[in-house]
Write a structure and sequence with these properties.
The protein has three helices and three strands. It is an alpha/beta fold and 79 residues long. It has a three-stranded parallel β-sheet, sandwiched between helices. Helix 1 (15-26) runs parallel beside helix 2 (40-49). The longest helix is centred in the N-terminal third of the chain and has 12 residues, at 15-26. It is globular, with a radius of gyration of 12 Å.
Length: 79
């Protein structure tokens, strides 16, 4: 059922978000990896799984603009 879906993971640069992003990636899912400040862990995901599977998305989800930007990124063709 999830074969065609991309996954948006918030807080993907640490903790449960990073664990979830890695788990989806290990199953071959495309992941839009949202982060607020720490981009190093996201870059490590890109290095490990490739930029065809990982789309970094820096956004502050405490703002409406950040939420809109994340959804725009997730809705881009090919993601």
């Amino acid at each position: 059922m999830l074969d065609y879906l991309s996954v948006v993971v918030t807080g993907a640069s640490s903790g449960i978000g990073l664990v979830c992003a890695r788990a989806f990636l290990k199953r071959g899912r495309r992941v839009v990896a949202q982060f607020r400040r720490q981009s190093m862990p996201i870059q490590q995901l890109v290095d490990e799984f490739g930029d065809d599977l990982v789309t970094p998305a820096q956004a502050d989800l405490g703002t409406e603009e950040g939420c809109v930007e994340l959804m725009r990124t997730a809705a881009e063709p090919g993601i």
